[in-house]
Amino acid sequence: MVVEAEELSLFQLDGSAEVPPWALRPSVSFCSTSRSRDKLSVVCPSAACADQPLARQAENGWAALRVDAPVDAAVLAQLSSVLAEADVPACAVRTLDTNHLLVRACSLNAVVRAMVSSEHVVRADAEARRTFGELLLPTCTVATDATGDLPALPDVFGGLWSRVIEEEPPGTVVDDTTLVWWLQAGDWYADIRIPRTSRVPVTAGGELPKLALAAQKSFAGTLEYQGVHEGAGQVTQWHRLADFHPPTGGADIGLNTLSEDGVTLVELGHPGADYSETWERIDGGTNFCVLQLAEPAGRFGLWLFRGTHWARVLGRPTDDACAVSSHVCHSLEHLMAFDAENRQKSVAGTAEPLNDLQQWLSTYEADFGIVEQPGSLHVAHSLRPEHEGRLYSTSLVAVDGAQWEERSGEALLSWRLVQTSGTDAIKQFLHSAHDRSHKA
Question: Do domains 2-135 and 155-283 have the same CATH topology?
Fold first, then answer.
């Protein structure tokens, strides 16, 4: 299912009226007409009718979801039923080999979440995300800058946290073996999750299978404080500005309760309490600094330092070359299964395969570890198993007091300081000398 990139408009004419010639031009990407004895209804891109006299009576704010490949009436009815259960009105428009569901643009996020919950994969490319913005993916929009207006986040969330247990729903343990670290430095965070099975080689050559690597998780961005909820916990929202997995369309909001000693945090899904995660703080150091990727543009990255720990996350480029960012689904494994099916269809000439899986795995980086001394960092956990146990001797070199450069392979990355607890904190983590060491 594909979110068409253009906003649509609907307008009605008298039943005896002719279809406007401009609506039928080949340059108009979508046009649907239906006539009854009393009315003629026309649906077309808003841009196509913007300069027409009829634009004043147009009902704007519609979107189309395209279902590629022929589907029978039963399949279209099933898709309409999914939307009906989500209380989203939809209108089906059918042609011989293509089907569309028309929905209100303001309902797009509800549509996406409903489809993902029903095991569907929704494609929303960069153009569609630009057109519909927050209406489509309000919590997953990739950004390269902080919003600058986040509410003050209490420092009680700062430090390195390790997850002890996950329950879904609360009371039912679903995971107590996955390695999960969450590093919070100021308003910024990074998270890494490595299942035990993703470190057990099963191939003859001792290599980890791609499916096991795809089961790992990592995301990073800003943590927004939304206040105290009814006197019983603090509400926060994790804005994922980089994510190893495709967006799901849902928001990541938690209702957090801290123990009196500040060591244990219980996070409940909010609202609804659909899951529970228990965390233990393993580093409560107060000094921190945060660097954000400035160049190259079109990619989100963070260096986080807090206490004696650090994290480096480099998200995928935000262009259309990467299928992960342009598809909305449950997980990377879900997208892999969808891609495998696509590849089978492509043999018969009915579908194009998505990008190579190796690109999906290799274009996102996440390393977490311990600061041994300024500029010398031990890698404890990484999405790339071969990095673990190494020393990451950074090539970060200060250009001035607020900008650093890093040599990463053949690429030169520029980072800028976005938040720190003080000048002394920066010296605790980073070299200010001019030597450019390399990654071990």
Answer: no
Assigned fold of 2-135: VC0802-like (3.30.2130)
3-state SS record for 259-289: CCCCCEEEEEECCCCCCEEEEEEEECCCCEE
342 near 335, Cβ under 8 Å?
A: no
Rg, Å, the chain Cα set:
25
Can you give the pLDDT at residue 440?
36
Which sign does the torsion angle of CA 191, 195, 196, 202 carry?
negative
Between the alpha carbon of residue 159 and those of residues 135, 147, 377, the distances in Å are: 33, 22, 17
Q: How many CB atoms lie within 10 A of CB 278?
A: 14
Give the E-state strand segments of 260-402 in sequence order.
264-269, 276-283, 288-295, 301-306, 309-314, 327-328, 365-373, 376-382, 391-393, 397-400
How many other C-beta atoms can be found within 10 angstroms of the C-beta atom of residue 369?
23
Structure tokens at 403: 């900008």
* Alpha carbons 98 and 5: distance in angstroms, whole number: 16
Q: How high is the pLDDT of residue 171? A: 95
The three-state (H, E, C) secondary structure of 156-217, written as one string: HHCEEEEEEEEECCCCCEEECCCEEEEEEECCEEEEEEECHHHHCCCCCCCCCCHHHHHCCE
Write down the residue that tokens 């209380």 correspond to: 87
Domain locations in the chain?
2-135, 155-283, 327-361
Per DSSP bridges, beta strands 159-167 and 179-185 are antiparallel
* Topology at the third CATH level for domain 155-283: Lipocalin (2.40.128)
What is the structure's pLDDT at 126? 80
243 touches 302 (CB < 8 A): no
What are the C-alpha distances in Å from 309 to residues 185, 284, 288, 370?
10, 10, 9, 4
First and final CA of the chain: distance in angstroms?
A: 44
Amino acid at position 170, single letter: P
User: Quick check: 25 and 52 in contact, CB under 8 A?
Assistant: no
What the block records as the tokens of 203 is: 């191939």
pTM more than 0.85: no
For the chain, residues with pLDDT lower than 70 are 69-72, 96, 139-151, 201-209, 319-323, 345-359, 393-394, 431-440
- Cα–Cα distance, 94 to 107 (Å, whole number): 21
Tell me the residue type at 224: E
